Amino acid sequence: MDIVLAVQRRFGYVSDQAIDAIATGVGRHPAEIRQMVSFYAFFDREPRGRCQIRLSRTPISLMKGAGAVASAFADALGIAVGEVTSDGAFSLDWTSDLGMADQEPAALIDMRMLTDLTPAAVPSILEALRLQGNLASSTTDADHPRPTLPNESVRSRVVKRGPLLAGPTGGGTAIEAALRRSPDKVIEEITASKLRGRGGAGFPTGMKWRETRKATGTEHYVVCNADEGEPGTFKDRALLTDFADLVFDGMTIAGYAIGARQGLLYLRGEYTHLWRALETRLAARRSAGLLGDAIDGRAGFDFDIRIQLGAGAYVCGEESALLESLEGRRGTPRERPPFPTEHGYLGRPTAIDNVETFACATRIIERGASWFGGFGTPQSTGTKLMSVSGDCTVPGVYEVPFGTTLNALLDLVGATDVGYVQMSGPSGEAVAPKDFGRTLAYEDLSTGGSTMIFGEHRDVLDVALQFTRFFVDESCGWCTPCRVGTTLLAREMEKIVAGRATQSDVEAIDSLASTVARMSRCGLGQTAPNPILTTMRNFPALYEARLQPGVFMPAVELRDALRDAIDVQGREPVSPAN
Ligand code: SF4
To answer: Best substitution site from 478, 487, 527 to test ligand 1's pocket, by max atoms within 8 Å of Cβ?
Structure first.
C-alpha cells in the first residue's frame, strides 16, 4: 500500500510500468498489483488532473450546499464534474463521505482537507492552487510543505465531554497501572467492565482479548480500526486529533494483555491530514519510553505502533477486509471462521478494535471496571461518543452515557422540527419521531455513533435513495447478491422517488431487499437494504403517497429515453392514438 500510495502521490496515477516495477520489487504477480490498485478510490490507472479535487457527496453535504460548490468549481474550471481540464491541470470528481459531516461541504484536494466550503471561496482556492502548482516544481518538497489553502482547516469539534474525555489525555498513567497487574488480570478488568466494541458490532472486548491471548502463534498483533467510513461519523477523527495518547495507551495495554509486540493503526486515506501529527506523537512516545523496547522499564515488554494509510474504500471498515488491505491486497472481506483472534494479520492471532474502544480501555485500566460500570446501563456500560450532524444548531461530537434517550440527545444539539434521524449511518436505522423516546444502548438503539438529523422538510425517500447508491458505489463486487442486488435496489428506489412505481414495485423491492440482506457475504451487503427497509417500515405513508394506481408502470418515460434519437431524426414519434 505504501509504495502504491507514494507512486500515486508522485505521478498522479499508477502506470503499467509502475505496476510491473512494484510487482518485481515485492515479489508478486503484476496482475495482483493491478487488481489491488483498481480496488481503491484514491488510486488512478490513467492520468487525472495534476491537481485532483474530490468533493464530498452525501445527503448531508448536499443539504449544506455541496451542489452549488460543485457548480462553482465546474464553472471556474470550464469542465463538468468527472472531467479533466484541457491543460491537465485539474480534475473534478465527487467522492463518498469524507468524515466531515459536521463541517460540510468538504473537499479533498490532493489529499488536503478543505471544509465549510462556499461558492464564494472557490476562486481564491483555485488561485492558491495555481500558484502552488507553479511553486511545486521549484521551491517545495516534503520538508517545505506548501502554504495552507483557504478553507484548509479541520476542527475536532468536541462539544460535550463526559467521563471518557474529561480526564487526562493519556500518556502513560494507564500503562503503569496495567504493568502493576499481570496480563490476565488486565483482561479480567476489561471483562469486568463489560466494555463492548464501539464501532457498532458491540463484541465484548475482554472476550476478544482473551481469545487472542490464548490463540497459538509465534506473533500476536493489535490492530486499531481507524477507518471510520460510515457516513455521518467523525468521532474517531476527533479522538485522533485531541486524544491520540488515550488511543495509543489503549493499544499498548492491549499489546501487553495479549502478548503482542506490534500494533498497527489503519488510518482511512481521507484522514491523511492527521498522519503527520500522529507520527509525531508516536515519536514522542518512543522518546518517553512508552513505545519500543522495555516499555516503562519493564524488561521483556516490547511494543511499537505503525500507521498504515488506507486509500478510500468503505468496505475496509469491515475487520477482515481491513486485514486484507493491511497486507497490501484488495479490501475483500474474508470468509469467517476462522476469526481474526486466531487467524488475523499475516495469519497470526490479532485483536482488532475501534479507536474509541481503545480509549475506553485506557480509562478502565486507569480508574477501574466498577468506575466504568457506574455509567450507562447494566448491559451497555460506559458512555458513547455520538457524531451529530444535519439539521441541528450545534453539530459535533457529544459524549453521553448509554441509556440516554434520542429525545435528550436531540435537545442537547438544538434540533427542532425533526422529521427523522438516521442512526449508525446508512447501514443503521431510519428512526421516526414516534421512536425518539428510545434509548441509545446495545439492547435498544444500538449505535456506532453516526447521528444524521433530517428536518421535517427533507425528502426521506430521496435520502434513502442516496444511501442506497452509496452501497452500489462501495460494494466490493465479490458476491452477486450485493454487487447486482444493490444496483437493482437503487433502480427500484429511483422509480419510487420519481413517482413511477406501483404497489407491485414496493412488493418487489421488499422481496429483493430481504434476498440481498440474507445472501450477501459480509456486513456491507447484509445491511445495504436498511435505508429502504427501515424507511418502508417507519414511513409507509410516504411510500404510498408516491405510488401510482394499477399494477405496472415502466421504469422510464419512453419519449424521454428516446430523446437523442428523436433529436437526430428531427421528428416526434407518432403515438398509437394517432
Ligand atoms: Fe463484497 Fe458486498 Fe459481498 Fe461484502 S457483501 S463481500 S462488500 S460484494
So the answer is: 478
Q: How confident is residue 142, by pLDDT bands cut at 50, 70 and 90? A: low
CATH topology of domain 159-373: Rossmann fold (3.40.50)
Handedness of CA 565, 567, 571, 577 (dihedral sign): positive
> In the chain, which residues fall in CATH 1.20.1440.230?
461-546
Each as own residue / partner, the long-range contacts of residues 487-493 (CB below 8 Å, 24 or more positions apart, any chain) are: 488/512, 489/513, 489/516, 489/528, 489/529, 489/532, 490/465, 491/555, 493/461, 493/464, 493/465, 493/468, 493/532
Positive or negative, the CA dihedral 201, 204, 206, 211 is negative
Q: Which of 96, 315, 488, 526 to mutate to test the pocket of ligand 1 (most atoms within 8 A of CB)?
A: 315
In the chain, CATH 3.40.50.11540 sits at 159-373
Predicted pLDDT at 577: 46
Which tens digit of pLDDT belongs to each residue from 363-413?
A: 999 999 999 999 999 999 999 999 999 999 999 999 999 999 999 999 999
Question: Of all helices (H) and strands (E), which one includes residue 422?
Answer: strand 418-423
Residue nearest to atom 5 of ligand 1 (CA): 525
Question: Around Cβ 503, how many Cβ atoms within 10 Å?
Answer: 14
Q: Report the length, in residues, of the chain.
A: 578
Contact 332, 285 (CB under 8 A): no
Find cell 481540464 and name the residue: 85
Whole-number Å distance between alpha carbons of 539 and 547: 13
Q: Is the CB of 479 under 6 A from ligand 1?
A: yes
Prior bond of 378 cis (ω within 30°): no
